[in-house]
Specification:
This protein folds into 2 domains: 29 residues, no CATH class; 37 residues, no CATH class. The protein has 3 helices and 2 strands, in the order H-E-E-H-H. The chain is an alpha+beta fold and 82 residues long. Strand 1 and strand 2 form a beta hairpin. The two termini are 25 Å apart.
Length: 82
């Protein structure tokens, strides 16, 4: 187990060192869970980045694929929220 002492600035923000962000795969979003006086921070995979590879870049296929992609995004968000 790795322990870090991180400073909290006047706005309540902490800065996670770059090496740790890279090791954990933290991008632009994290999920925070608070339980029993402990805060757990976990990386969140950016859904649209993952789904972007599935979209063909013309308007007809985007219009066709959008409902399926939206449903997949909603399902993923529900999983992450629970």
């Amino acid at each position: 187990m790795k322990r870090l002492a991180l400073k909290v600035d006047s706005k309540g923000r902490i800065q996670v060192p770059k090496e740790v962000r890279q090791e954990l795969g933290i991008g632009k979003e994290v999920s925070v869970r608070i339980e029993g006086g402990t805060m757990t921070i976990e990386p969140v995979e950016r859904l649209f980045d993952r789904l972007a590879g599935e979209v063909r870049f013309n308007f007809r296929s985007v219009a066709t694929d959008l409902p399926r992609l939206r449903k997949a995004a909603e399902e993923e968000l529900l999983k992450q929220a629970s």
